[in-house]
Amino acid sequence: MTDTEDRPRLGRKRDPSRDQDILEAALDVLAETGYEGMTIEMVAARAKAGKATLYRRWNSKLELVMDAVSCMKARHFDLATLPDTGSLRGDLVSLVKVPNIAEADRKLRIMTGIVSMLARDPELAAAAQDAIVAPRAAANRVIFERAIARGEISPDIDLETLCMIAPGIGTYRSLMMQTPLDREFAIRIIDSVVMPAALADPGAALADPGAAVETAESAPAEPAPASS
Fold first, then answer.
1. Rounded to whole angstroms, what are the CA distances from 95 to 24, 60, 104, 194?
2. Cα separation of 99 and 183, whole Å?
3. How much is the pTM?
């Protein structure tokens, strides 16, 4: 027997180029069926791969979902090339493009699909936060910081809350209302919620929030109506 014949035969080498196809298929199935309804067989069929191929890469459905959700981080906004129109509203509206809206809606449907797992798996919850919510908040932060630098909005604005307004409303719309995102809705949120909040004067708020309560408590009570 030759040396070549003595060597054990190896199985087919893993094809890394298939990983992305499988992860994208997992995300599609997750968005359609949710975590509970998703099966490895469904993902294999969507990816046109054998079930054994998936199990060689991932030991469980949860491992596959973790990798699939994490891979979405690669499609973040490019913060170096965000729109710069010279105005806050212009920049925000410029982000509301059809591809961005479609990707955001897909991400939120994926979030809906894994929501039952988030409380049980902190690692998955963190991956979902990093891949679904954080990228848009980071893009908003760059745009709001530009507006502050231009003097368009106050440097004392609550920047972190401002950055989360649109992602938060979008998430609520998807998770609770089961309604897809669209351009009209996104622009309505910019005009009716985000812009008024951004342009508000932080100094107009009461320095002592308890003052309003004290004023109400010290106001004279209205006389009781006379009995007839």
1. 24, 37, 11, 14
2. 10
3. 0.71
